[in-house]
Specification:
This protein is mainly beta and 792 residues long. Strands 1, 3, 4, 6, 9, 11, 13, 15, 16 and 29 form a 10-stranded mixed β-sheet that branches. It is built from 2 helices and 61 strands. It folds into 5 domains: 162 residues, Jelly Rolls (Sandwich); 73 residues; 154 residues, Jelly Rolls; 147 residues, Jelly Rolls; 39 residues, no CATH class.
Length: 792
Amino acid sequence: MPKPINIQDSISIHPNGATSTSNLTTSSSYPSSNACTDSNSDTYARYTVTRSTTGETYFTFDVPSIPNGATITSITATVKVYVNNTTYVTNTVCQLYSGTTAKGSNYTFASTNSSNVVNMTNTGTWTVSELPDMRLKIGGTGNNSNNNKYIYVYGATVVINYSISGTAYTITAASSVNGVAATPATQDVMSGEDATDIRIDADSIDELAVTDNGVDITNALVRHAIETTATTNRVLGTYTLVSGSFNSSSSTYFQGLVGKGIDNTKTTSNYYSSGSGTIAVFTYDMSFTDIPSNVTITRVYCEVNGHAESTSNSNEYMCAQLISGSTDLSEELNFKSIGTSNTTQTLECTTIPTVAQLASMKLQCRLGYYGGAINGATCYVEYELPNAGNGYYWTYSLTNLSADHTILIEEAGVYIPPEEDPQYEYQSLTISSINATTNPGTGTTRVIEGSNQTITISPTDPQLTLALDNGVDITSQLVGGTPNNTYTVTTPADADYGFNLNSSTGFYVSQNDSQSKTASIARVNLNLESNCLVTFTYINYAEAGYDYGLFGKLDTKIAYDGLTASSGSSSPSDSTSNYQYICSSASDNTQTQKTLTYEVPMGTHFIEVKYGKDDASDAGNDNLQFKVELKATSTGGDYTYTLTNITQKHSLVFVFGNVNYYFITSSGTNCRLFPDGQQVKLEGESYKINIIPNNITDTVSLTDNNVNQVLTKEEGVDKNNNPVVSYNYTITNIQAAHTIAVSSTASSQLFIKSQGSWVPVVKLYLKQDDRWIEQDVTYLLDNNLKYLKKGN
């Protein structure tokens, strides 16, 4: 029954972990876990900010489930955080994020008082779907001194206030089959909202009876393969000097100069060297402590980005190697042989380490007198999961809720078809789909003859491949579905120059050529009904190192001023972190077309493009040109297809995505089939058909591609305790199309079930005009069985 809901409620949560830390380090005495508490904790995590850099870490949250349809009215947070010295650490950050999207205001903290509390009230507008990705960013910038630069984090309390008003329905899922689980067990869903998919953990459903409010939904279940392999990675961890020293620099300083990711470039113009005549040996933590002990490790390798400062001096080298304790896991990589330019090389483990060895794995580096640099590294472990590769689970979707639902999983038995009102005639509506869910669900639904039916198709892949009704293409009759993704290019009001469209080439062209110390600005406004790949094709005619083509990050405003040359080059006036890509090197500044692609979620966004010029001379065409292409990577909504005045059975097929599929076509006489008609299946999937003969004593036979098949017969009773019989046939690992023909032939002898067995009837009496009249023992319809009377 629907439940009226009118609730004002709130939940309080605390951090459950820290992740994505960069340019910050912690010690074992003050780990990140100390701050995974409320904001009044007595324990704290202490972060050391790397010299002359901005460090940051993100705390994550386990947000309890809030019913679909709820409105987030406000989110507030209390964070206990401070720095040891406001001179050593500046530009502090305390802000909530949803994934990579900042929410609301950044609250700085500048207190050196251990009782300092930051009260965050403007945390932006949130939706329920954004809550699972909630993160709290804490960070700051270390100055250029050698003094300790600490951020202390005691904890945080986030309060989520929400309201619900309307009607909710309850969905329950339960299994009575040993080893088969259904989750979630219960959920309340607002009227008109979609429920969380019901997951059924079972390798096969052939021996299961799965019903929704008593109606078989086996054909509506979607099968998913359990992943067979997994890959985990780590970037550079804590730095440790094992032996030797660094020339004129402390180990802390050295650590501050080294990047934390594989894509980092050389962080300083200085090289790092050991002392005269010595070798410095240092390691980075690359440990994997979260890999299950029962996996099979198949490959371990590390991508290392670095350089050697010289290749001519015999005392110069930079070497890297993977180790675990005293065991060498890989060959040594010598950057001297590679050269002085930054390059990424792969360290492959020649001996596959054990899980225990991975827990203490390190990247060991050796530095000769003239030195070099390790700018970043990422290690990867590939492994196979136990009992995977032939396992599956199943999901069932419920959309646009308008009733309570009870999903039951029981041992398979006789198939009971949907009840039909005897005053109506019925037709079969059979639906199958790939990469889409439908309402009504896939399988066969019996609909009243002459009625109308609208089918809603919700694709999970944006590419519509096939839509058929009884084999006829109905693509043009589908309504909706195609996302309307558009963009416009405008010039911001405070920009001096813009970009104009060249209608003959389709490129937008900057308009500040030959204008020193100026910039052309274009704002590309995106209105997306689906997730998209936004690709810029561009031509950059700028002078290398002087005039720049700049592409901003998504939803990030960039500086609109020009550039000023200095010491033979120029650079953007605002932070380079505001840009996705900067065309600055000689290889960028050619007439060759190049591309830059952004992954953009659905919604309203913008990307700013800039052509900035310095005060030096001009060269060539002196402009930046670009054009934009949008490619949907998710669907933009549901399709609908409407049948009116249904007078025949319909087989509807919907396929999305570039997939291999096969048709399974079934037909029968003197029986009902579930499913009935044409279905579509992926290669390797299974297909099961249930056959209900018109009479329980009929003889049923089936051919598959003209080959006779053995059927499984099931006997039982319906909810009124009347005897019922069904037959079923299953095709596994489909590799070709199948045509199934079923026939049901009436028996010449009448049988009745007695003490669990069917026995022939010797005498038969039917009541006529209040008298019992003996009949010939011939074939009768099932409906007449209720009039049977035991003879003398």
